[in-house]
Design brief:
about 350 residues, 8-stranded antiparallel β-sheet, 10 helices, alpha+beta, disordered N terminus, single chain, about 35% helix
Length: about 350
């Protein structure tokens, strides 16, 4: 008697059942799982475009939209409150306080506390009270004339974290006439950290924040892998020098290739060394990778003043969660690289 055409040989049947079981366990579950997609929103804040990507499913849509709304509201509040050019801001109130104690917001006080901490940590090369020197060099650029040594030393007397007194209970006093502060080197980092905190409070863990090149990568990307961040070549902004892979870390870059003073037909870095009162000359750019964006913001500026070798040693001493790349342009136009020990481990090899 012939076998029915639908019956399979005995040696094929076990293999067929194995494939069928594998499909039922993996393929069918995959069909029931929601597809992860990328949400994106962009706003102009803090003098730059802030782009935020979030990974989630259609089921997450309401949660993601609610998170975005809370984040934008928070960033907007920080933007004006810590803006040196906004007369309503805490910074402006302090700069016009005439040595009288001023009550500031809790977040401003927190940023000031950390500014003092980073100033001590970097030996004073990160200093929010460098603003009078910035004003001196801006005026020199308008006049196209270098400031005199006497002018520099006079203004330097107004600079120093010792002139900023944190009195507790959100009270701050500028203790020396002429001392003014600028939180531009740390406030954006704080804002990015606040955005990350809000997303996580709403149950959103995979996101990518880019605030004008200051980046924080939360969790994984939308493919479930580490986020990749490109480090731009300061000689040609259209080119990528390195690509690093990060998770729950900030990647912050500072340098003189986008902002600078032009005096005497030459470009001078906008980053002022508080110890000399002059623009730093050595570093073209510094990139740091840190657990939080606020410390990354401050340390990227600090490393521009510390320089290549000192900056590398400084970051190596911070531990495995910290990395840096300092670039110095040599006489022939090539870049000398000073990379920390951990940085080399993060670079993607193609």
């Amino acid at each position: 008697m012939e076998k029915p055409a639908t019956m399979m040989p005995k040696d094929i049947l076990p293999k067929f059942l194995l494939v069928l079981c594998y499909f039922m366990v993996t393929g069918c579950q995959g069909l029931n799982q929601e597809r992860v997609q990328k949400y994106r929103e962009t706003k102009m804040l803090m003098g730059t475009f802030v782009n935020i990507d979030v990974c989630g499913t259609l089921h997450d849509k309401l949660r993601v939209e609610t998170s975005y709304q809370a984040v934008w509201e928070r960033l907007g509040a920080i933007s004006w409150k810590m803006n040196v050019f906004d007369d309503r801001s805490d910074v402006a109130k302090l700069n016009h306080s005439n040595q009288v104690p001023v009550s500031v917001g809790k977040d401003t006080y927190y940023v000031l506390e950390n500014s003092m901490r980073f100033s001590r940590l970097t030996g004073g090369v990160f200093d929010i009270s460098v603003y009078p020197l910035i004003g001196l060099w801006r005026e020199s650029e308008k006049q196209n004339q270098f400031p005199s040594e006497e002018q520099i030393q006079k203004v330097r007397m107004m600079v120093g974290s010792q002139n900023i007194q944190l009195l507790g209970n959100d009270q701050v006093r500028i203790g020396r006439a002429g001392t003014k502060i600028d939180l531009g080197g740390i406030a954006k980092g704080y804002a990015v950290d606040e955005a990350a905190r809000i997303f996580r409070e709403h149950g959103v863990y995979d996101f990518f924040i880019d605030a004008g090149g200051d980046v924080y990568a939360g969790g994984n990307n939308c493919l479930g892998k580490l986020w990749r961040v490109g480090i731009r070549d300061p000689r040609d902004k259209s080119k990528i020098l390195d690509v690093v892979e990060v998770m729950n870390q900030a990647v912050m870059t500072s340098g003189n290739y986008e902002q600078y003073y032009t005096i005497g037909g030459k470009r001078w870095s906008h980053i002022i060394n508080p110890n000399t009162g002059r623009p730093q000359k050595e570093v073209t750019s510094s990139t740091v990778i840190t657990p939080t964006a606020m410390e990354g913001d401050a340390l990227a500026t600090g490393l521009c003043v510390l320089g290549g070798q000192a900056g590398r040693e400084f970051m190596d001493a911070r531990g495995e969660n910290y990395a840096s790349l300092v670039l110095i342009k040599s006489g022939d136009g090539e870049l000398r690289r000073f990379s920390s020990r951990t940085y080399k481990k993060l670079v993607v090899q193609f």
